[in-house]
Design brief:
This protein has about 250 residues and is mainly beta. It is built from 1 helix and 21 strands. It has 2 domains: about 150 residues, Immunoglobulin-like (Sandwich), CATH 2.60.40.1250; about 90 residues, Sandwich (Immunoglobulin-like).
Length: about 250
């Protein structure tokens, strides 16, 4: 699955009037609603053609996650509520993402309290069938509604449940970085490992040890040398049969 260097730029027309890239039926920023504490909850919606997929925040071996360049007004901190992804294996490459439709909720804190929050953004993301294409859209959200949107709320409810317990982990050096071995809370389940707060750290695909119920990933920094790993920044997401769970931080032995 090869990522082609093609950028498709969409002007800020209504979604129905845009010439959308191949694989995408529609795209929009859902207006959402204002919360009692003055924040605004909204969402990105991507409706995909049959057989196409887009990606989670940590795609895995390939893929491009959605990225946002905010252009709106009174936008402070933005927090995303990622629905649990599915594991997609194509041509032997394991990725994490979504088929059919992605509703990605986010909450916007105002930069100035008591003032309206206007939302617009340049959004870049990956679309993939047999080949993968990066696409860029300029999207504007209508004014916020008066009540919560059930579709956005359902996507928020589909986010992995946060677990306070920290799995045991061992951290060691490798030639060009570090390795982290985690005990898996649910043997046999699909999972993802991330290193939070450091987007320049590359995380390898997980290697499973079924006999010991462990998973190991390599962390490689731009310098290609060992570096201090913060156990609190290790994030383990388990995609189990009874739902997804998220463990933030690990207990280093």
């Amino acid at each position: 699955m090869k990522l082609l260097p093609v950028l498709i730029l969409i002007t800020a027309l209504p979604a129905a009037a845009q010439d959308l890239p191949q694989g995408l039926q529609s795209a929009r920023l859902m207006p959402g609603w204002m919360t009692e504490d003055g924040q605004r909850t909204a969402a990105l919606e991507l409706v995909l053609e049959p057989g196409w997929k887009t990606y989670w925040r940590s795609p895995g071996d390939a893929g491009l996650p959605p990225e946002f360049d905010w252009k709106g007004s009174n936008i402070g901190k933005v927090t995303f509520h990622w629905p649990a992804p599915e594991v997609i294996v194509s041509d032997g490459i394991r990725t994490l993402g979504y088929h059919d439709r992605l509703v990605l909720p986010f909450t916007v804190e105002p930069e100035q309290g008591g003032e309206p929050i206007g939302i617009s953004a340049d959004v870049t993301f990956g679309l993939c069938e047999n080949i993968c294409i990066p696409a860029s859209l300029e999207l504007f959200a209508p004014a916020a509604g008066a009540v919560p949107d059930p579709a956005i709320q359902a996507a928020m409810d589909a986010a992995p449940a946060l677990v306070n317990r920290k799995p045991a982990c061992e951290i060691g050096e490798i030639e060009d970085g570090m390795s982290v071995t985690l005990s898996t809370p649910e043997p046999g389940a699909e999972l993802a490992v991330e290193y939070g707060g450091a987007p320049d750290i590359w995380v390898s695909a997980p290697e499973f040890n079924a006999e010991r119920s462990e998973v190991t990933v390599d962390l490689v920094a731009p310098g290609g040398k060992p570096f201090p790993v913060d156990p609190a920044a290790v994030v383990l997401t388990v995609l189990g049969q009874d739902g997804a769970t998220e463990f933030r931080g690990c207990a280093a032995g």
